Every structure is written in C-alpha cells, then in structure tokens.
C-alpha cells in the first residue's frame, strides 16, 4: 500500500499527514453481491478460472486491438498488482521507461509475476476484498466504501444493481465517466455494465430493463467527518509543493515524504490563541449590533431581499435539483426548507442542531472570519499561517485564496512612491478638500475623497504625520503629485501580484489583494529594500531521511536601502504621531517594555466591510484581515468595524504572548538603525494638539504647541478608504 507523507513545523512537531484519506477499508461480507457481479462481468469474466493471468483474454484483446477494437486484457488480479505497486509509474520503470515497446513488455511482465504471487498467497475472496479497498473512483475517493458513500450516501452492502453498475463503470475512466461532471456518459457506461451483467447471467432480463430505465439518483449529501489532521497549513503546503511534485514525479499521498515547514509551533499557537480570543469577542459584538435583523445590506443599508436565493443558487446541488424538478421552484425550495440534523460551528465548540439548508446559509452568513500571516523578512520564512477560524467548517483560505479591499493599508505605497521620487517625510501638505479629474476607460470622472470624520482641519501636516493619522485628503493630493500609475508600479515592485486598477483611489485601497501579498510587500521595507520570495518549506526528505530538496528564499532589490529605512520610520508614525491610527496598541502593556518599537498601518474598506492591520516589529511582519465572507455583511460604525477595532487587537494580543515567552526567540527592541547614510530630512516633530476641555463650546479649536508628542494620545477614526468617485 502507498505510504503517506508527513508535515512538520520548523521545530519538529508533526502537524499533518498526506495519505489517501478517503480509503476506508471494508470486509467482503459487507460488499453487495451486485458490486462483485458487476466487477467480474465487466473486468474479468474468467476471474474464478485463472491463476492471476488470463492468457486467453490477453491474446483475444491483442487481436481486437489489431482490428481497431481497443479492449483491455488485464485480470482483476493484475489490476490489483498495478494499483498496489504502481508498476506503470515512471519511477517503477527504471531506465527502460525511455524505450516505448520494451517499456510495455517489462511492466506487463511485472504485473504478471506479481499477479501470480498474489494468487499464490491469497484466495479469490481475499483478492476481491483487496481490490475493492484499493481501487480509485475519482473525486479523491479510494475504495468502494468511500465511493458508495460519496455518490449514493450508502454503505457498500446496500447498493442496487444500477448503482453497482455505475460505480464499476467508472473504473474504465474515473474522469470521463464521473456521474457528477459527465452524467450522460456515466449513464451510458452504467447501462453497458448492466448489459454485461445480463449477458453473464448475473441479472435477469427484467432486472436489466428496470435498472437501465432508472435515472442516476445520486445523493451527494454525505460529508467525510474524519479530516486526518487537515488544516490551513497542510493545504497551503500541498499547494506550495504542487509544482515541485509534478516536476520531480512525487506524490504527497503515496511516496512517504517528510516535509519540514518554516512554521514556528510556538508562534502558531500564540496566533491561534489570539485569533480565538479576539474573534469570539468580535462575533459577540457583531451579533449584538444586528440582533434579529438580517445583516446583508446594499451600499445604502437596505436589506438585500434575494440574498438567500442567490446563495442557494451558488450551491453545487442547485443545478441537480433544477434538472430533477425541471425548474419547478416550489419543489426546489421545499428541498432547501427541509430540516435535517447537522453539526455547526460555534465559539463554544461544535454543536448538533436541526437546520434546513436555508437556516444554514442564514447562520453562516453572519459568521466573521479572518486571515493572518507572520513572516521573518531576514530569512523569508513564514512563521504563522492562519487561513480562517476553523478549517473543519471553513475550507477557504483567507491568507492566499481570499482577496479583499486593502483600505488604508495600501496608503504606504503612495508614500513610498513619493519618498523614492524626491519627497521627504517632513514635506508638508494641507488637510483640505481635494478634487481630482481623470479619465477611466475614456470617460471623464471626478474624485473628491472625504476624511473619516467628513471634516477637514486645514492644518499643515508632514507626510509622516499624514500617513500616521491616515489622512485621506493628503494621501489623495500626494497621489495626484506622484501619479497613480506610478503607485501601482511600486506596489507591484514590492510584491503585490493581484491586478490593480490604476485610478486615483488606488492609494486608498480600492483594489482587492491577499494577506499573503500584503505581508510580502511590507517585508520589503524590513529587508533593506529587497523584495522577498517567501518560503513555507525548508526541506524534503524521503523515508530514510535522505534530503531530496532544500529551499531558500530568493530576494531582489526593488528600492534603495535609504528609502526602505525611511518607510520603517514612517510606519512608526502610527504610534508616535498625533492621532496615529495604531495607538490602540498602547492598551497592550506587554508590548512596551525595554524601549520596544512597533510600526504598523490600519485599514478599513468602505462600509466597514474589511478590517486590516499590518504590524511591523524589528524582525517580524504580520498581516491580519477580519470580515465576513460575503461583502454585504459587515459592521456599521467606525467604533465597531474599523481595522483598529477588529484586526489590530489580534496583533496586540499575539505579540504580547510572543514577547512573554523567552523561548520564542523574538525579543523587545528598537527598529534597525539606518543601514546607509540618510540624506533626506526626516526628524520633524509634529505639533502637539491640546484640546481646551474647560470650555463648554463643542466647536473649541485645538491649540498647537511645539514639542514631540508623548505616547499615548487619543486616536482619531481611521478611514473607510475607497470612497467612490464623486463622493
């Protein structure tokens, strides 16, 4: 049998395995005679008469092939030998794999010899048992038990002649005769098998007629409960190694590899704890906000009436029902309204309940999710990967699969473009209304972005202050000065690979990007201006420990060391500048020992749909996104839904846990000192804002006094960034 592969953390902890997880063994007594009869009638009618190789069938198949009627001559025992030992795989063929005719003769001889040995050791019943437990049925189903459950939600002993014929018919070509993808071809093949069963007296004429007239009657409601250590990391590693496996002819599920990842088990655990702690609170806040009201709303706050229907129509089963009931919506809706037992995710643990499909859609649409990744830029190693709140219920990976509007976390690329093209952190702009005229696909457009509080202070501010306070109006002015095409160019330079629409609002995060891309791009600044190619796997060995491949991160210089250091200084502004949007981190005292420094950027998309936080320490970059999977479901106010209140707390809690563990390897400390001589002016303290609280006049004007702002200070709302043109 094939040997599965194992996945380890960087510190040697087993975190997952790859093996043919859907192979669920079953004894012959629990396999319906219909399946045995269908198999023998179709694949090896002389099965009970030969001793592993049927030379009569072999030579007749050769004659048929010569006449243009391609027909296989392998016995069930030969097929078992092929399934067990993969005699036709390139690695099993040695040097003769390059010689076409000889190659075929050799693997045929191997199969014959193995088949004779199998027949010598096992009786016919045992061979059938082995065969049914090893044969692949497509859709990652191995063995008859898994296949019958997957396609009919039945155990193998309950399978009818028609169902048995469908399953056995698939063995000829699991993809071509897949009843889900190719129902017409599967039906035709099923009836061919039924014809074979009648021909060899395993089925009466009446039985054949009844079975051949019956529809496919698939039941796809069965869900495999045992995930065998499945996780977001395990899936990410599989995807990361996909190209390597193809190029080197390895199979993760069969070749017994040992895969050593970059994941740090301590940091991963602290991140998972922080996510569970904060997401539980956020979900409670969200539920309290909406109560019994439906949260799916359009941009004007009006409930989307067909929300549930559209989600029904996206389900794979909808097309089958539509075909079954010939478009009768009443019957389709009756199916979706039927109650059934199911297990659902809750923050108190899995709970059994009775839900209809509509109940389930309504329930899960309200669940908030997250994606989080931590990278060590000096090595390019990914230390933390959290694709969501629970892989058992939410398979979609929010680190590299999901792409969401970046909001203000994208603003730094505008400031980067400015710093790399003549500007300094001390250059000043005035916080005032902005009108930008531009063309989009040949059409004249006007963009007038608002600040978060819909007010303009008319105060002159340095670029560092403006980025730290996340001022939309100044970011927009800067975008007009340096050019939005240029900002797109710099974002791509740093590692953003998603397509970016080049419009003025690009700098306010109107485009969709992934957490992975954002962490990679931000790491450029801590990596002295070199763009990283992050790695998730450091080494692969075989079962004996022989190293098959080692991986190292690649980097490429994309900005100067001076600009990279100045950007780190700019990021500190979120904590140090008046009204800096990262200052909620002062609520985490465990972060601020031994003169520690942290930089970062919050982000919130329009209507508080997406909350982001990008956090930078002296040796780590962490990106976090929080939101509902459906963009029409979201918070409604800055106090509840902006990134500083959703994603930032996860970062704060995570880093507190990391710093509290002396064995984590990550300690307090200041950002790196300049790597090169800094030629641009950057040390320009912003005026401290003091509000006269003795006055009862709510319109009292803040007073400016000179001096560096000590932490902490009052935070101002950060911006729902991608304000539509004309707003």
Automatic annotation (TrEMBL):
Positions of the UniProt region annotated as Disordered: 693-727
Pfam families reported in the protein's UniProt record: Transgly (PF00912), Transpeptidase (PF00905)
Enzymatic reactions: Preferential cleavage: (Ac)2-L-Lys-D-Ala-|-D-Ala. Also transpeptidation of peptidyl-alanyl moieties that are N-acyl substituents of D-alanine; [GlcNAc-(1->4)-Mur2Ac(oyl-L-Ala-gamma-D-Glu-L-Lys-D-Ala-D-Ala)](n)-di-trans,octa-cis-undecaprenyl diphosphate + beta-D-GlcNAc-(1->4)-Mur2Ac(oyl-L-Ala-gamma-D-Glu-L-Lys-D-Ala-D-Ala)-di-trans,octa-cis-undecaprenyl diphosphate = [GlcNAc-(1->4)-Mur2Ac(oyl-L-Ala-gamma-D-Glu-L-Lys-D-Ala-D-Ala)](n+1)-di-trans,octa-cis-undecaprenyl diphosphate + di-trans,octa-cis-undecaprenyl diphosphate + H(+)
A molecular function GO annotation: hydrolase activity
Domain Glycosyl transferase family: 12-198
Keyword Magnesium: no
Residue stretches making up the Penicillin-binding protein transpeptidase domain: 375-617
Record's keyword annotation contains Glycosyltransferase: yes
Composition skew (Low complexity), residue ranges: 693-706
InterPro entries: Beta-lactam/transpept-like (IPR012338), Glyco_trans_51 (IPR001264), Glycosyltr_51/Transpeptidase (IPR050396), Lysozyme-like_dom_sf (IPR023346), PBP_transglycosylase (IPR036950), PCN-bd_Tpept (IPR001460)
Compartments it resides in: Cell membrane
Pathway(s) the chain acts in: Cell wall biogenesis; peptidoglycan biosynthesis
EC assignment: 2.4.1.-, 3.4.-.-
Similarity annotation: In the N-terminal section; belongs to the glycosyltransferase 51 family. In the C-terminal section; belongs to the transpeptidase family.
PANTHER family hit by this protein: BINDING PROTEIN TRANSPEPTIDASE, PUTATIVE-RELATED, PENICILLIN-BINDING PROTEIN 1B
Descriptive protein name: Penicillin-binding protein 1A
Organism: Mucilaginibacter pocheonensis
């Amino acid at each position: 049998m094939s040997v599965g592969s194992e996945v380890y953390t960087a510190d040697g902890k087993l975190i997952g395995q790859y093996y043919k997880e859907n192979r669920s063994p079953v004894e012959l007594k629990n396999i319906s005679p219909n399946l045995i009869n269908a198999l023998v009638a179709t694949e090896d009618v002389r099965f009970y008469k030969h001793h592993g190789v049927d030379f009569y069938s072999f030579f007749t198949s050769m004659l048929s092939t010569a006449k243009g009627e391609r027909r296989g001559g392998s016995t069930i025992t030969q097929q078992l030998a092929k399934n067990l030992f993969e005699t036709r795989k390139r690695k099993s063929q040695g040097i003769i794999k390059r010689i076409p005719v000889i190659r075929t003769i050799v693997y045929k001889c191997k199969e014959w010899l193995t088949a004779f040995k199998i027949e010598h050791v096992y009786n016919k019943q045992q061979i059938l048992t082995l065969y049914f437990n090893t044969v692949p049925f497509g859709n990652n189903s191995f063995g008859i038990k898994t296949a019958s459950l997957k396609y009919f939600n039945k155990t193998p002993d309950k399978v009818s002649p028609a169902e048995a014929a469908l399953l056995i018919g698939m063995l000829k070509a699991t993809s071509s005769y897949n009843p889900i993808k190719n129902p017409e071809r599967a039906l035709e093949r099923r009836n061919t098998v039924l014809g074979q069963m009648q021909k060899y007296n395993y089925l009466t004429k009446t039985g054949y007629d009844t079975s051949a007239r019956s529809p496919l009657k698939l039941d796809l409601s069965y869900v495999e409960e045992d995930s065998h250590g499945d996780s977001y990391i395990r899936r990410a590693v599989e995807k990361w190694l996909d190209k390597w496996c193809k190029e080197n002819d390895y199979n993760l599920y069969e070749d017994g590899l040992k895969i050593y990842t970059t994941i740090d088990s301590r940091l991963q655990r602290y991140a998972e704890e922080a996510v569970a702690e904060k997401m539980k609170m956020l979900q409670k806040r969200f539920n309290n906000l909406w109560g019994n009201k439906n949260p799916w709303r359009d941009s004007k706050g009006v409930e989307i009436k067909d929300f549930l229907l559209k989600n029904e129509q996206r389900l794979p089963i909808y097309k089958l029902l539509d075909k079954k009931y010939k478009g009768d919506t009443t019957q389709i809706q009756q199916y979706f309204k039927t109650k059934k037992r199911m297990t659902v995710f809750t923050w108190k643990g899995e709970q059994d309940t009775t839900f209809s499909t509509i109940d389930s859609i309504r329930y899960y649409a309200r669940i908030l999710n997250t994606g989080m990744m931590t990278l060590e830029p000096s090595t390019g190693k990914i230390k933390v990967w959290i694709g969501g709140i629970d892989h058992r219920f939410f398979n979609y990976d929010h680190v590299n699969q999901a792409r969401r509007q970046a909001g203000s976390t994208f603003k730094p690329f505008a400031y980067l473009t400015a710093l790399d093209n003549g500007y300094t952190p001390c250059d000043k702009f005035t916080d005032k209304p902005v009108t930008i005229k531009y063309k989009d696909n040949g059409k004249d457009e006007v963009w007038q972005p608002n600040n978060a509080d819909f007010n303009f202070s008319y105060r002159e501010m340095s670029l560092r202050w403006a980025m730290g306070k996340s001022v939309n109006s100044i970011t927009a002015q800067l975008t007009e000065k340096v050019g939005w095409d240029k900002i797109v160019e710099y974002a791509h330079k740093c590692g953003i690979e998603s397509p970016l629409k080049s419009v003025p609002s690009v700098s306010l995060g109107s485009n969709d990007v992934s957490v992975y891309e954002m962490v990679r791009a931000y790491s450029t600044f801590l990596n002295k201006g070199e763009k990283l190619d992050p790695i998730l796997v450091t080494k692969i060995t075989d079962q004996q420990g022989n190293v098959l491949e080692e991986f190292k991160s690649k980097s490429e210089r994309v900005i100067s060391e001076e600009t990279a250091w100045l950007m780190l200084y700019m990021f500190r502004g979120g904590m140090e500048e008046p009204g800096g949007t990262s200052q909620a981190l002062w609520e985490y005292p465990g972060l601020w020992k031994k003169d520690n420094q942290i930089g970062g950027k919050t982000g919130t998309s329009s209507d508080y749909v997406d909350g982001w936080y990008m956090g930078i320490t002296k040796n780590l970059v962490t990106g976090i996104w929080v939101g509902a999977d459906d963009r029409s479901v979201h918070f409604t106010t800055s106090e509840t839904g902006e990134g500083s209140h959703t994603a930032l707390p996860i970062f704060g809690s995570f880093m507190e846990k990391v710093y509290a563990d002396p064995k984590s390897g990550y300690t307090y400390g200041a950002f790196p000192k300049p790597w090169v001589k800094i030629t641009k002016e950057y040390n320009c303290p912003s005026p401290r804002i003091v509000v006269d609280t003795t006055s009862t006049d709510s319109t009292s004007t803040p007073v400016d006094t000179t001096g560096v702002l000590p932490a902490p200070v009052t935070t101002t709302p950060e911006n729902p960034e991608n304000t539509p043109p004309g707003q």
